[in-house]
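dumping the sequnces here before i forget
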Amino acid sequence: MAQVFPPAANSAARASLLGAMALPVLLTMAGMALTRSSYNTHVNVAIEQPIPFSHEHHATELGIDCRYCHTSVEKSAFAGIPPTHTCMSCHSQIWTNSPLLEPLRESYRKGIPLKWNRVNKLPEFVYFNHSIHVNRGINCNNCHGPIEKMNLTAKGKPFFMSWCLECHRNPEGYLRKPGTALDIYREGQSNLPHKLDPDDERLLYDQDYKPSAERVEKGKELMEYYHIKKDQLTDCWVCHR
Amino acid sequence: MHDHDEQPHNLDSMRSKLQGKDGAQYWRSLEELAGTDEFQRFVDDEFPHRATLLELDRRQFLTLMGSSLALAGLTGCRILPQDKIVPYVKAPEEVIAGKPLTYATAISLGGYAHGVLVESHEGRPTKIEGNPGHPASLGATNAFMQAAMHTLYDPDRARAITNVAVASTWDDFLAATSKALEGQTASKGAGIRLLTETVTSPTLAAQIREFLTKYPNAEWHQYDTSSADNVKAGARLALGSPVNVVYKFDKAARVLSLDSDFLMTMPGSVRYARDFTNGRRVRKGTREINRLYAIESMPTLTGALADHRLPAKSSDIEAIAYSIAQGLGIDVGSSAPTTKLAPPWIAAAVKDLNAHPGESLVVPGEQQPPSVHALCHAINEKLGAVGKTVVYTEPVEAEAVEHVASLNDLLADIHAGHVQALFILGGSNPAFTAPADFAFADTLRRVRFKVYHGIYADETAALCDWHVPDTHFLEAWSDARAFDGTASIVQPLIEPLYVSKSAHEVMAALNDKPLPGYDILRESWKALGGAGDFDTWWRKTLYQGFVDGSAAKEVQATIQGSLASRLPQPVSAGSGLEINFRLDPTLGDGRWANNAWLQELPKPVTKLVWDNAAIMSPATATELKLCPADRPDQATGSMVELSLGNRKLKMPVYILPGHAANSVTVHVGYGRTKTGLVGADHGFNPYPLRTSAAPWFSGGLKVSPTGEKYDLLSTHYHNSIEMLDRELARVRTIEDFIKNPKLTEPDEEENPPEYDTLFREPDTYRDWEGAKWGMSIDLQTCIGCNACVVACQAENNIPTVGKDQVSRGREMHWIRIDRYFKGKDLENPQVVFQPVPCMHCERAPCEPVCPVAATTHSHEGLNQMVYNRCVGTRYCSNNCPYKVRRFNFLNYANHHDVNELGQEAAPLKLLNNPNVTVRSRGVMEKCSYCVQRINAARIEAKKDRRNIKDGEVVTACEQACPTQAIIFGDIADANSRVSKAKRQDHDYTLLADLNTRPRTTYMAKIRNPNPEISTE
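..and the predicted 3d for all of it:
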C-alpha cells in the first residue's frame, strides 16, 4: 500500500503543532491590537453630524476662541455645547442661504435643539472636570488632539485609563501659567511667522505630543504654584465616585 | 451572647438576664435578650439567608458553573448606541451646564410651610435642603421634606384629568363645572360646598373668600387627619380664642411633655428640635443642660430623649395634668380626678418645673383632649412661662376651625340633601382618612356633582365624578405660612410633569378668573402689600424664600375667669385595654404611602418597614397570652383581632419595650387600597376603628389572638455589631461627666488600646499634608428622626429594594440608625439612637481583603469604593466590623423598564443625582462621606489657590440633621468644627479595641436626671 502521507506531512504536522501553540498568543495579541485600534477607540474617525461643522475653519482660519462656543469650559465640569443662538449670532448674517446650515435655521425657527452626535465620551463612572484642567493651564489638545486642525470632528485620543494616568502620575510637563491654556491657538492661527516654541508647535500639530524634559523641569515650579499634590491625583475617588 | 444552649426563655429569664448584666446594660431587642437563632444569624452574618455552595448538590453546582463559564464573557458584550449631545436653542440666564442652581421655595406639611432650598440640574430638581433663613427650618429638614422629591417623580401619580375614570380635558371639566354651578346662582350657592385641608396660604384663603362672596350661601369645610383640633379647642377653652401656640425651647431649662412628640409631629418640630437640643449640647466645662420629662403611652423620639420617661396610658394623662395643676396650686375644682401613677415622680417633676420660673414649660400632645391643653395653659401661666418659653400669636390658619366638627357639619348637610356640588381640594383623601362613624364613602355618593383635586388617583378620587390631578409643590406657584406665621412664596422649579392644576388654578377657574398660577400669586401679593417697589420686593422675597416680617403678631392671652368651671367632665381612664391612634411616623395619614423611600425607612422607634402593627408592651402581650412560655419576643408577628365595640380589625403585634401597659398603639396610614404600586396592599388599615368621638385614643379595646403569624419586618437586628461586653452607644449622666469627663475606666485611660497589626503600613494618612476628612456624631443631640437616612438616599442615588429583599438584610441605606435599649427595666428602658455610616477607618479591615483593590484609601483618609473595579466577592463586607457595606444583590437601581417595586422606571431616573454613579448588580457600595461634594469644593478651592474652608463641604446627612448632631470637616485643621468636636473629652471611638482608627467618632449621650427621682 502506498504511503498515505508524503514526507512533507511531518513538517506540516510539526508546523501545525507550533501553530496551535502560537494561536492563543496570536489571538490575544490580535485582540489587544484590536482594542487599541481606532476600530474600537474611534480615534481619528469622524462621526457624521447634522451639520458638517469644521473646527479648522472656525478656530484656525477665523480665529474664534474656543470659549466663544464652549462657554463653561473654565467654570464647570462640562465644557458646554453652543446653543443655536450662538451659531446664529453670525449665521443670521453670513451663509444665510447655505443648504448645509438648514438644520440650524430650522432649529432656530422651531425652537427645537440640534442633536449632535457625541464624539468624546467617558464611561458614566468617570467624572472628568474641564474647569480644573483648563484652570491649571492644560491645553485642549492634550486630550482632544489637534482639534483646531480638524475639518470634521473626531476623537483625538483613546481615553484609556492608562492614558489618563500618564498625566495624572506626571503632570509637570502639561501645566501652563494661569490663564494661558488657550494662548497657543492665537499664535498658531496668525499669518505672521510663528513665535511658538518647539513644544507648543508639536502640541498644536502632533497627535502624539509628549512634553520635553525642559518643559517638565519648568512645570515643577508650577506644581508648587498650583499646590498640586501629585500623590492625590491618582486617588480613585478623584475621578470615580 | 454566644451561648446557644436552650434554657427556658421567659420574661423572668429575660429580666434576670438584664439583672445579671453588670456594668452597662445595653440591649437592642427582645430577640437579643432571648438569644434567638435569628438574631444570632444577623450578628454572625451581614447578609444571612442566602444559598451557599454547600447547599448545592454536585449536579446543580456543575450546571451553574458550566453556564456561568459559558456566559461569563457575554456580560461585557454590547454595542453601545451613539450618544446624542443636545444643546439649548437659547441658553437660559444663569445656567452653566454641569453646575446645579439652587432656588428657595417652601413645602407644606399639614398645611404649614417649611422653607427649603432645592437643587436643580439644568432644570431638573434633584435634592431638597433646608433654608437656613427660614424660621421653621434653619437649614435643616425632616424625612418628609427629603422624601418629597421622590413624590415629584413618582410614576404612579395621576396623569390626566378624569371624568368617572375616563380621561378628559380641563376644558370639559370647566364646562361641566360651570353647568353645575349655573343652577346654584339663584340660591346663592346654597348647594355648594368646598372641602379643603388646613389652609395657611393667604392667596388660597383669599380665593376661597372671593368664591364665598360670589356664592354667599356656599360653605367652606376643612378636614385633615393631622389637624390639631384639640390644640385649638384647648386654647379656646382656656384663653377664649384659638390662638396659635409657639414654643420657645431655646429658653426652656425644664420641659415636661404630656404625651407630646414635639420633636417630630408639630408644624414647628424641625425648629423645635434645634432649639431644644441647643440647650443640651455638652462641651468641655458644661455643667448644666436642660432637663426633659416625658409622660407618654407610645415611645416616641421625645420620650427617647427624655431624662425621665414615665409610660402612661393616653387616658391617664388627663388625671396627671389635673394633679400637676393641683400641685402648683391651680384651682381645678373639687371633682378633679387624681392619678395613682408614680406620685413621687410627678411631685419631683413639678417641684423642678416650679423651681425654674419663666424657664420651664409643659407641652401637651395634640392627641390629648382640650381639657389637657387648657390645663397646660393654666400650668404654663402659673410657671411664668407665657411670653417666655411659650408665646401666643394670632392664628396662622386662615380659618382656625376644628376639622372633625367641620367634616361632621358637611356630612350632616349632605344627609339633609343640601349639597349638590362638592369640591374636595388638596389630596386629604377623606374617603380613606375620615372617622369611621362618618361613613364618608357612602355619604359622598349622595352628592350629585363631586370633584376631587389630589395628586394621586386615590380612594376619594375613585368616588368622585371628576378628578383633577394636583400639582406637586415643585411644579406650581403657591404660598403658605409656617408654624410662627412666616409666609413663603412657593416657587416652582419645573413645569408640571403631567396634566395637573394647582389649587389656585382650580379656585381661579371657579371664580371665573382663569389666570396662570404665577399671575394669581403676584396679584395676590400686590394686594397683601409687598413693601416699596413691588418687583424689587418680589424678587427679594423669592430669593430669600420667605416674606420679611410676616410672622404672626404676638397676642396677650390669659386664662379667662375660673377655668375649673369650664373644664368638661373628665373621662375616667378605666382599667381595661386602651387603643391609641397615631399618624404613621413615615407615611403620615397615608398620603406618603406611595413613597418608596418612606416605606422602606425604618420607623424611628420600632424600626418596622413596609408595615404597621399593633404595638404593645411585653407585659401586656404576656397578660394577653399572645406568646407561649411567657416569652414576649415571640408575640411579635402574631396576628390578633382588635375589637372596639363592633368594629374589628386583624393586625400583627409588635412588642415594644417601654410602651405603656394595657395600651395598644396602631399607626394609621397603611392599608391603602387605591394608590400606586408601592403603597397599595401594604400593612393594615386602622381607620375603620377610629371614630369621631375618639379619634386618638379609646378604652374598651379587646384583643384576641387569631393564631396566625404574619411576616412583620423590623430592621432592628439587621447589621448588628457584635456587642460582647462593649459599650457601643455610651450613655452617662451629667454628674458622671463633670466628675470624669473622659468616660473611660481609669485603667483604660492609662493604656489606650494599641495592638500590633499584620498589615504593617506606613501611616500615610496620618502624615498627609492636606485635608484629612473626619466626622463627629453627637449621640447627645441625635434624636433618631431619620432625616439623615433619607437625605443620604436622595443625595447618593440609593435604591429601595422592597420588603422581601429587606427581610434578607439587603436594605441599601448607607447610614443606619441603631437603636439601643439601656437599663434593667423591660417596661421602661432608656432608648439611645446611634447613626452608623461608614467609619472611614485609617486601618480599614475591608481594604486588605479585596482581591481586586476595588476598595482602597485616599490620601485625605477616605475609604474609597470603586464600583467599576468591584467584582462582588463581598469579602470586604464580611470583614467590616461595623457592618456598613451594602451589596447590590440584584439590579436594584440600574433598572431598565420597571424597577424592583414594579414601577415604570423612566420618571424615577430623573431623580438621580448626576454626580453620583448609579450602581449596578454585583457591586458593593457604602457611605462615601459625600465625596462628590468634597470634590466639587476641592476643585473650586484649587481654582482660587486656597484651602477648602471649614463648612465648605457639608455631607448630606449633616446638612439635613435638624439638631446638628453630625459634624463633618477637616481634622487636620485644628480650628475646624469637627476638630473641636473630636477634642471633647467625651468623644469616643466605636470598637476602639479593634484598632481600626475610624475617622468617624462619637460623642457620648449625657443625661440630666433629677436626683430626686430614683432611676432603678
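Chain A has 13 helices and one strand.
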